[in-house]
Prior knowledge:
The chain is α+β, with helices and mostly antiparallel strands.
Amino acid sequence: MKNLILAMIFALVSVPAYAQSSQTTPDSATAPTATQTAYRINAGDDIEVYVWGEERLQRQIRVLPDGTFSFPLVGRIEAEGKLPYEIESVVSKGLENQYRGQVPQVTVSVSSPTGMQFSVMGRVNSPGNFSPGRYINLLEALSMAGGPSQFADLDGISIVRKTPQGLTTVRTRLGGLFKRSGAANAVSKRAIPNIQSGDTIIVP
């Protein structure tokens, strides 16, 4: 019954859009919005780098297994763990000696997050490691793991996440999704967090 309801709710939940470039100019880099900060670049991701007005500097690139990529006139760039707007700043800085005036606007976006990986353990029907190749939320992650098992505690789910400051735990309550009276209110971005690469989902 849980899996049937999960499938019905899954159809109602929209998938977050790919993280977009912050489109900053070289001399006015600003922090990204909440949408832009949702995804950090991983090894294996496909990214697009554009220097506006410069066809020779427009590239679709796959980040190498060591987390780097090479860009013309800039050289090797450390990309893993960085946000798109941070890569924009690195490329702009590397191009400064190529222009007498201002460097053309640089934009970086993730075209395919194929390097994204996460794992699910605990009371699900098919625990394991997963590489969805797209952005997903917690509900979709549980669906990929075969859904919660019969005695899963959906109000005690934990997401163990790697951050630059170390491991952190995000606790989530999804029990309301399986109650007829509360399902509509529970289906929201706040109730269903997005999954980040390297997350470990624990279902007690």
